[in-house]
Write a structure and sequence with these properties.
- It is a single chain.
- The chain folds into 2 domains: 259 residues, no CATH class; 253 residues, no CATH class.
- Helix 2 packs antiparallel against helix 7 and helix 15 runs antiparallel to helix 16.
- By secondary structure, it is mostly helical.
- The strands form 3 sheets. A two-stranded antiparallel sheet has the order 1-2. It has a two-stranded antiparallel ribbon with strand order 3-4. Strands 5-6 form a two-stranded antiparallel ribbon.
- The two termini are 44 Å apart.
- The longest helix is centred in the last third of the chain and has 30 residues.
């Protein structure tokens, strides 16, 4: 389709003003770190201003490009999520003025003394940049259409946003440096906590509003705006991993970057590419093939990760047995479901076992590497690549499911009262299974979903996957709903397998209440799946 330049209208004239405000905000975002946000007692941990300048200018440059090409609506749509996220970033950066000792921003400052540094001119310039960017969004939004609609990119964009939000919940890095905090957004102090929590709301809401727009230009620009802004939230943490000693890679920033790539891909995907073409299903077949390849590749990496050392110890010492890595075996087995398109819902739900297994395994590595001479082994990197491939497989499976629904006459049946009762029981029991320990021993500190360890986040994500599968199963077609419930049963079964696979890691181990609750949840989910199919 040949696009023609949009005529000059009051809306496009307003966009020129919005672009001017956004350009000024980007300039402030680039200049602030150069001027330094605090006094000389707490310089940045590494030279980050070139990276920060690039991240500040990139979205505005893209918006300007679309405006110059005559697509003012697309350019305006890029600026709207940029400004919405600027409000969150303003609150996060404001904490530097309120409590510079409590923040963990190695790209801007690194406090190495008990005395709190004083805010400097760079901080006020940085905050002014966020205000200007938010003002630019307020001007740009006045010319956008608000009518809703849904296209083939909706599912892809939603899945990418979910992955990004999961990454934002995780710590930005793993720090062995006592001067750099190692917390997630939930551990942030004061206004940074408020900004971080608001960020978790703004990202999916902005994505859904953009993806559901009836105007293709608004969809493209809105998704690009979110996708191009997300890297600014995590790229500094990735830079710290490269440039700062004793700072290691965490899974959260990787997930955010994957989500950002997914949003940009969804934005640039031609309209209608996921829909049926002339009565055939080549797109759906290709998507199913991609799911199978990614799923099997993830499973292969999980197997290699389970069989190779997760720790590297000095020569002459014997590496301890990594019992937690054994949970990668059932996670790898579930990837075989990717081979069968009919089992796609079960595969999506069962993949929630991946953060469970990987989280517990990486938690053991993190604990061991507190010793200076112990380093992560090759198994860690195989596991990490497997997680990335599994996430890509799930996103593709969600897209394939959306394409399939567009091509079929989808009819659903309301869930029966017995099904609702069994599903609710399964969900409640599953919460207890993940919140209570599976293994108990005198010298063992169990990992549960209520803790703040690396493994706890994996358990929380797995629990969220189980509860989400139960909710979707009640609203899905009987066969699809049953598959979702069986996939969730695989996750709770993996939680139960933690006892036989890892009990040897400590002396005098005994089953914990989480084991029996995990078994009960698995049985309840299987019964719920049987009840769901009985309604078919």
């Amino acid at each position: 389709m040949i696009r023609t330049a949009e005529p000059v209208t009051p809306a496009s004239a307003g966009l020129r003003a919005a672009l001017g405000l956004a350009a000024a905000g980007a300039a402030c975002g680039a200049i602030g770190p150069v001027l330094s946000v605090v006094d000389d007692t707490a310089p940045p941990a590494f030279t980050a201003w070139p990276l920060l300048a690039l991240l500040a200018v990139l979205p505005v440059a893209v918006a300007s490009y679309y405006y110059a090409r005559g697509r003012a609506t697309t350019g305006a749509a890029v600026l709207v999520p940029l400004g919405a996220l600027a409000v969150c970033r303003f609150l996060i950066d404001l904490e530097i003025a309120l409590d510079p000792v409590g923040v963990s921003r190695p790209e801007l400052l690194r406090v190495t003394t008990l005395a709190a540094p004083e805010p400097a001119a760079g901080l006020w310039v940085l905050l002014a940049g966020h205000v200007l960017t938010a003002a630019a969004a307020a001007v740009a939004v006045t010319g956008l259409e608000t009518e809703g609609g849904r296209g083939g990119r909706f599912a892809l964009a939603t899945a990418a946003a979910v992955v990004a939000v999961g990454g934002l919940l995780s710590p930005p890095y793993v720090s062995l440096d006592p001067f750099l905090r190692n917390g997630s957004v939930l551990d942030a102090p004061g206004s940074a906590l408020v900004g971080g929590l608001l960020l978790l709301v703004v990202v999916p809401v902005a994505t859904l509003l953009a993806a559901s727009s009836a105007d293709d230009d608004v969809r493209t620009g809105g998704l690009l705006g979110v996708g191009l802004t997300l890297p600014a939230l995590v790229a500094p943490g990735l830079g710290a991993v490269v440039a700062v000693d004793k700072v290691l890679l965490a899974a959260g920033p990787v997930a955010v970057m994957i989500g950002a790539v997914g949003l940009v891909f969804a934005a640039l995907l031609p309209a209608g590419v996921l829909k049926e073409h002339e009565g055939t299903l080549p797109g759906l077949r290709r998507l199913n093939t991609i799911v199978a390849v990614l799923g099997l590749a993830a499973g292969a990496f999980f197997l290699v990760g389970a069989l190779t050392p997760h720790l590297s110890v000095p020569e002459g010492l014997t590496a301890p047995t990594d019992y937690a890595a054994r949970l990668l075996w059932p996670a790898a087995a579930f990837t075989l479901l990717a081979l069968a398109p009919k089992a796609r819902p079960a595969f999506i739900a069962a993949t929630a076992a991946v953060p469970l297994a990987a989280g517990l395994s990486l938690d053991a590595v993190f604990a061991a590497t507190q010793v200076a001479t112990v380093l992560p082994g090759p198994g860690v990197w195989f596991t990490t690549v497997g997680v990335i491939l599994a996430i890509a497989a799930v996103i593709t499976a969600v897209v394939a499911g959306a394409a399939e629904r567009d091509e079929e006459d989808v009819t659903t049946t309301s869930p029966s009262l017995p099904l609702i009762a069994v599903a609710m029981i399964a969900g409640l029991v599953a919460v207890g299974a993940f919140a209570m320990p599976v293994v108990r021993a005198p010298d063992l500190t169990p990992i549960t979903a209520l803790g703040l360890r690396v493994g706890s986040w994996g358990l929380l994500l797995a629990l969220a996957g189980v509860l989400g599968a139960i909710g979707l199963a009640l609203a899905s077609r009987p066969v699809k709903g049953a598959a979702l419930l069986l996939g969730a049963a695989g996750v709770t079964a993996t939680r139960a397998l933690e006892y036989p696979l890892t009990a040897s890691r400590a002396a005098d181990t005994a089953p914990g209440p989480g084991l029996w609750l995990a078994v009960a949840a698995t049985v309840a989910l299987v019964i719920a799946a049987a009840v769901r199919t009985a309604r078919s």
